Amino acid sequence: MSKTNLLDRRRVVAALLANRKDVVAIGGLGASTNDITAAGDHARNFYLWGGMGGAAMIGLGLALALPKLPVLVITGDGEMLMGMGSLATIGLQKPANLSIVVLDNERYGETGGQTSHTSAVADLVGVAKACGIPDSRAISTMAEVEAFAASVHDVSAGPRFANVKIDSAELTRILPTRDGTYIVNRLRGDLGFPPI
């Protein structure tokens, strides 16, 4: 990965959620959840504290259950590599309201910053396209991030996938609650469903 012109992860996530309206946002394990929280805690944020590799499938489930609402998964390259098979299911199901953004710093941040496969051979955009997600793109500028953020609101043209190359800066963790019942019930309540 070229070390120049990499995007700032917090700036990317803030831009994705700046005009969120009714978007349901799912944060993958670790840093992406912290980044979503840094952009502003919200009742429609679903923070994934465990189950590495599950963010895209949780997004798929929500997208299928709520087809009129935009669903945005924001996750990291390590988490997406762990759940790469989910892209095949998403390509098969074709939820028009689902968008997936991978914040790719080419590192496994949760286990010590080891180099991930996206630094060498793994092309997540190519995998997403091969799995039946034709709107799959690599993003390298804030203008492209902002354009993608606007497209998230179109619930008739997905699924869409974006891999965003970001820097690997160590940022202060901004942690949301880890109370899973609270997170689920807050989201359910905001969507008009009773608590579980």
UniProtKB/TrEMBL annotation:
Keywords: Decarboxylase, Lyase, Membrane, Transmembrane, Transmembrane helix. InterPro entries: THDP-binding, TPP_dependent_decarboxylase, TPP_enzyme_TPP-bd. It comes from the Bacteria. SUPFAM superfamilies: Thiamin diphosphate-binding fold (THDP-binding). Residues 45-147 form the Thiamine pyrophosphate enzyme TPP-binding domain. The chain crosses the membrane at residues 46-66. It holds the Pfam family TPP_enzyme_C. Signal peptide: none annotated. PANTHER family: SULFOPYRUVATE DECARBOXYLASE, SULFOPYRUVATE DECARBOXYLASE SUBUNIT ALPHA. This is Aldehyde dehydrogenase.
